[in-house]
């Protein structure tokens, strides 16, 4: 998989789970922290239409959150 981006907060347990799931599947990803960056938060909301984290994009396509990632990986790996 190419170009995986995950919008996260450092205190988010679902963010940690999503990152661990990506790591377990040997998928490299870019972390984008939103807690101290209003610019990153605004971009995440604009792209995903969601205010919760994590928000995951694969090849610029919005996958969703942690549970959505589980479903996506089951179908695509």
Automatic annotation (TrEMBL):
One of its GO terms (molecular function) is electron transfer activity. Residues 4-63 form the Glutaredoxin domain. This is Glutaredoxin. Pfam families: Glutaredoxin (PF00462). The keyword Transport applies. Has a glutathione-disulfide oxidoreductase activity in the presence of NADPH and glutathione reductase. Reduces low molecular weight disulfides and proteins. Belongs to the glutaredoxin family. Keywords: Cytoplasm, Electron transport, Redox-active center, Transport. It comes from the Bacteria. It comes from Wigglesworthia glossinidia brevipalpis. GO terms for biological process: cell redox homeostasis.
């Amino acid at each position: 998989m190419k170009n995986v981006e995950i919008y996260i907060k450092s205190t988010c347990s679902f963010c940690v789970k999503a990152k661990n799931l990506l790591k377990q599947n040997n998928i490299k990803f870019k972390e984008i922290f939103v807690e101290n960056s209003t610019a990153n938060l605004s971009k995440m909301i604009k792209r995903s239409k969601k205010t919760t984290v994590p928000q995951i994009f694969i090849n610029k396509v919005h996958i969703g959150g942690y549970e959505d990632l589980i479903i996506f990986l089951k179908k695509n790996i």
